[in-house]
Structure formats: C-alpha cells, structure tokens
C-alpha cells in the first residue's frame, strides 16, 4: 500500500493540497492517506471531515514517522529544505515547485527525492484535468474583479433610476488565458462593459464569445507551440502599448493577467499609462508576484498613482495570492488536480497485490511533470 501525505501549508498559504473529498477517492483507490492536523483549517475543512473520509490525522512524532515513510508528499507552496529533509529517499513530491535554483535542486538530489512540478504539465487535452495553473487561474480571474469592485467608487452595472442613469463601468483586461477569460465573464455578469487584449491571434474569438470587445494590437503571430504567448520584440511591444493605451485611459478598471510559467511577467503598462486613467480608477495586477505587468505594482500592496487629470489617484493593486483568497473552492480544484495525477501514477502489480506509485516515463504527462535534479533522477 502506498503512503500519500499532505501537510499544513506554511504561513501565508491558505489552500490545502488534499481535501476530504479527494482523500476519500484516494482511500478507495487503495492508498493510505496521512494529513497533518489543521491541514484544512484555513480552507474551512475540519480534521473530523478528513478522518471521516479515511485519512489518518497526525501531529508531532507520528507525523514525522509518516513523512519518513511517505511515497508521495502533496503540497501547494514550494517545499522548504527543512521539509525535504524529513522525507525518505525515493519519495515523490507533487505540487508547485517555484523557482528551482542550484541550491534547491541540490537539496532535492541530496534528499533523494523526486519532484513533480505542476508548472511543467504538458498542455494537452488529456492533461486538462490535472492542470493546476488553469484551475487556480480560474479562481484568480474571478477574484480580481471582486477586488476591483470593492475599491472602485462607483457602480459596475448601468442603473436607470428616477434620479438619472448611471452608465456602466468600463473594464479592460490584458491577457486572455483562463484568468483573463474568467475576469471578463465575471465583469460582464456584474454589468460592466469589457474590452480585452492578448497578443495571441486565437484569443480574439474567445474574447468575443464572452461578450467583450477585442483590442487589435497588430503584432502578428505570437503564440508558441505550447499555447503560451512568446516574448515581444521592442517594436511589437511598443505597438501593443500604443494600441491599448487609449482603452486604458478610458477604463474604470484595468486587470492584467499575463504571465509565463518560470519566467518574469511581461511589462505591459507603464506608470504614464496608469496616470492617464481617471481618478478613482483601479488597476489589478495578477502578475505582481512575478515582476508585474504594471510598472510600480508591489505584491500584496495598494499603490496610489496621481492621476494626470487631477482630482485624485489611481489605485494599483498587486495581488499576492488571488486563489488563496478563495481557499475553499481553490483547494477543492487543486486537490482534484492532485488526485488525478496520483491516479495515473498508480500501478496495480501483476500479482494482484496492493497498488504502488511509479513514474512511468513512457507517459507524456508524467515525463513532463518530472524535474531533473541529479544524475540518478529517474524513478522506475
């Protein structure tokens, strides 16, 4: 029987790598599941719910023993060296890896632990049910509109009253991946008028399909084979800024979502472009933690930029962890992604024994997830 372990995440991370629902599925699949007491407290899942689902809830020495015997450790935030050191050789980790510098790579190699990183999941139809980046971007896009709406000093929908008509707010979304499309859909449901831009030509139809106006930037084909946007050259980047600047200047809300896993976020909006917005307007930067799409945004802070029109400021919001602000459902989605990966890791022995976890490198998903950390990185 394989041992699957999940810990309470470090301070600042509210999501859980496993929920009672996914624990129940893993136990039905023949796995032994151990979770740290309080793993779901910040995502509103209680220890008794985990126990009822079949998990062994542990703390202290029993938890340390479980970590040493773990076949797989599921996690959300990148693992620290201290947690890696508690795992036994041959263990697999599954979660978000973050930046993997030489020091962290050496820590994995020294511990004899094989990481599987969701950032490396192939972008294929078969992999969609395991795509953490997409499931968490869904939560982030929804949350970004709520963050903007609570700061905007006006209505989002048009309102016709005896005292007069309030026009709808104007929203501009930059980056039309999962987060951008969800932001567009949420803003539309709240009654705003929405325009959006993405440098990938395939995005135009997606934007129009959810009732928004696509902003043409005229920068040609900029989509990679993996579905991501490639970096723009200087001339194309300038052309994009010129195309979107008038829309941003008239927007009440600007939401930027452009990012590429493992790289710094592209800079899409200058301070001058933000200052051209009306006082009271709001700019939400979902990429603040990876360098920011908006010049001057700071992770976890609201930055006030004086409007060049006078009369007040534009608020630039650097979102730190948008999915973590919706921990119950973000954890539900994340844990299901984890469970789906564990399902394809699970192998039933020919002799009919209990299922085991193996990384089959003939499987394109598992081969993509696996991070090379040393000369003996392959686990069979």
Task: Give me some keywords for this one.
380 residues, alpha/beta, 7-stranded mixed sheet, 6-stranded parallel sheet, 12 helices, 33% helix, elongated, disordered C terminus
What does this structure look like?
The protein is α/β, with parallel strands linked by helices and 380 residues long. The chain is built from 12 helices and 17 strands. A 7-stranded mixed β-sheet has the order 11-10-9-12-13-15-14, sandwiched between helices. It has a 6-stranded parallel β-sheet with strand order 3-2-1-4-5-6. Helix 1 (20-28) runs parallel beside helix 11, helix 6 (132-151) runs parallel beside helix 7 (178-189) and helix 6 (132-151) runs antiparallel to helix 11 (327-345). Mean pLDDT is 92; it is low at 376-380.
What's the quick description here?
With 380 residues, this protein is of the alpha/beta class. 33% of the residues lie in helices and 17% in strands. The strands form four sheets. The chain has a seven-stranded mixed sheet with strand order 11-10-9-12-13-15-14, sandwiched between helices.
């Amino acid at each position: 029987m394989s041992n699957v372990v999940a810990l309470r995440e470090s301070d600042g991370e509210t999501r859980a790598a496993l929920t009672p629902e996914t624990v129940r599925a893993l136990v039905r699949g023949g796995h032994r599941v151990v979770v740290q007491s309080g793993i779901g407290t910040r995502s509103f899942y209680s220890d008794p719910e985990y126990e009822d689902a079949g998990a062994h809830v542990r703390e202290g020495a029993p938890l340390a023993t479980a970590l040493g015997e773990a076949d797989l450790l599921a996690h959300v935030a990148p693992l620290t060296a201290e947690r890696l050191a508690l795992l036994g050789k041959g263990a697999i980790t599954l979660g978000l890896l973050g930046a993997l510098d030489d020091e962290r790579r050496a820590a994995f190699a020294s511990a004899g632990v094989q990481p599987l990183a969701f950032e490396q999941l192939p972008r294929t139809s078969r992999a969609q049910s395991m795509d953490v980046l997409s499931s968490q971007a869904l939560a982030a896009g929804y949350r970004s509109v709520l963050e903007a709406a609570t700061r905007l000093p006006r209505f989002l929908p048009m309102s016709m009253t005896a005292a007069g008509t309030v026009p709808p707010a104007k929203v501009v979304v930059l980056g039309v991946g999962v987060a951008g499309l969800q932001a567009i859909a949420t803003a539309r449901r709240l009654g705003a008028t929405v325009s959006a831009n993405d440098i990938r030509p395939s995005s135009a139809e997606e934007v129009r399909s959810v009732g928004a106006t696509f902003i043409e930037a005229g920068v040609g084909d900029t989509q990679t084979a993996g579905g991501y946007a490639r970096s723009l050259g200087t001339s194309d980047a300038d052309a994009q800024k010129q195309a979107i600047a008038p829309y941003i200047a008239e927007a009440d809300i600007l939401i930027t979502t452009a990012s590429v896993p493992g790289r710094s976020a592209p800079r899409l909006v200058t301070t001058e472009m933000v200052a051209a917005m009306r006082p009271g307007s709001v700019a939400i930067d979902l990429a603040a933690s990876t360098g920011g799409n908006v010049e001057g945004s700071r992770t976890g802070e609201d930055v006030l930029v004086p409007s060049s029109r006078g009369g007040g400021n534009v608020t630039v919001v650097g979102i730190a962890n948008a999915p973590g602000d919706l921990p119950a459902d973000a954890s539900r989605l994340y844990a299901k992604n984890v469970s789906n990966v564990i399902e394809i890791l699970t192998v039933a022995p020919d002799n009919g024994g209990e299922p085991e976890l193996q990384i089959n490198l003939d499987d394109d998903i598992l081969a993509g997830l696996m991070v090379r950390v040393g000369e003996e990185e392959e686990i069979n």
